[in-house]
């Protein structure tokens, strides 16, 4: 693969194209300043305005959320895995029917593998614009977003209606549901009863990993963060590893499925048979399947990177809230 061909599979942080109308809460006060990014795969955006940087199927999706201070993403659920790591800022993640069952604050580099099938939300509690990177299981990311009823109801008061087809319509712009398409129904009480209310003690030990713990674990070899044998033991359809200067590799390594490199700290040199590229924090690189490459920091100082590769496991829930086989 030539350097030009490989560069087309690199999304630079400065080239990310945001969508400010990606979801049903885009006009709801408190959530109306968030930006959504779809880096790899179709993502779960409900807006026709969403730009997709790399549409090649990987077995998972890569996205990002950028938000100013005090801006939040409303309560929702997914049918497949949703993993976040904090690239910039300080973030509070909360969950439960009303967002009060539990919460955790994540700092830069921390990662959370939010359990499938619970309502979750997040907000930037830092002092500056923040960014979190996301990995969603499956090529179709589980078919979209399931919103808590109050989110749909609140959005209607601000002009946005979500159709049963998963698309948004802005009544303030004169848009209406197409003929034959009804509004997305809200979950009823019986359906809501199936959503668990795990406490902070249920979630944090099994689904949250701290940056400096991972940095220590990856001192000599890459640390598996999320995987069947990972620090956060799960089988969400992809494996996430953490690499530091001490665990980078000079030999050429290839994977049978596309692998994604996402630097957290420092600049990284990726070298393959026909060329090389340098990545900075916030960049995302997709290396094609069976392309062998080496990976090493290109400068002195702290260096860390998240590595994601699909597995043969189903993209749905395979582990329960205690971290054991479901």
From TrEMBL:
Alphabetized Pfam families for the sequence: Cupin_2 (PF07883)
Transmembrane regions listed in the UniProt entry: none
Domain Cupin type-2: 69-132
SUPFAM superfamilies cross-referenced by the UniProt entry: RmlC-like cupins (SSF51182)
InterPro entries: Cupin_2 (IPR013096), RmlC-like_jellyroll (IPR014710), RmlC_Cupin_sf (IPR011051)
Entry-linked Gene3D superfamilies: Jelly Rolls
Protein name from the UniProt record: Cupin domain-containing protein
Species in which this protein is naturally found: Pseudorhodobacter antarcticus
């Amino acid at each position: 693969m030539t350097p030009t061909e490989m560069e087309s599979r690199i999304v630079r942080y400065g080239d990310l194209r945001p969508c400010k109308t990606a979801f049903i809460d885009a006009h709801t006060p408190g959530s109306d300043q968030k930006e959504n990014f779809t880096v790899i795969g179709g993502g779960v955006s409900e807006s026709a305005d969403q730009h997709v940087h790399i549409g090649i199927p990987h077995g998972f999706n890569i996205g990002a959320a950028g938000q100013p201070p005090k801006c939040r993403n409303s309560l929702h659920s997914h049918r497949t895995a949703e993993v976040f790591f904090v690239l910039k800022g300080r973030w509070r993640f909360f969950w439960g029917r009303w967002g009060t069952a539990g919460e955790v604050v994540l700092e830069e580099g921390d990662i959370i593998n939010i359990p499938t099938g619970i309502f979750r939300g997040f907000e930037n509690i830092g002092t500056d614009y923040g960014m979190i990177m996301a990995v969603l299981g499956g090529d179709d990311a589980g078919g979209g977003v399931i919103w808590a009823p109050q989110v749909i109801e609140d959005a209607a008061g601000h002009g946005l209606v979500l159709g049963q087809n998963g698309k948004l319509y802005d009544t303030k712009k004169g848009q209406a549901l197409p003929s034959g398409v009804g509004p997305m129904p809200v979950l009823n009480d019986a359906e809501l009863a199936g959503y668990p209310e795990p406490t902070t003690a249920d979630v944090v030990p099994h689904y949250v990993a701290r940056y400096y713990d991972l940095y220590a674990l990856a001192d000599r070899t890459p640390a598996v963060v999320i995987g069947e044998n990972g620090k956060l033991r799960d089988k969400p359809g992809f494996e996430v590893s953490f690499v530091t200067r001490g665990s980078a590799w000079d030999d050429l390594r290839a994977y049978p499925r596309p692998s994604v490199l996402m630097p957290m700290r420092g600049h990284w040199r990726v070298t393959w048979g026909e060329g090389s590229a340098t990545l900075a924090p916030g960049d995302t690189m997709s290396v094609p399947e069976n392309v062998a490459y080496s990976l090493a920091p290109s400068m002195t100082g702290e260096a860390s990177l998240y590595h994601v590769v699909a597995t043969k496991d189903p993209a749905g829930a395979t582990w329960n809230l205690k971290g054991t086989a479901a």
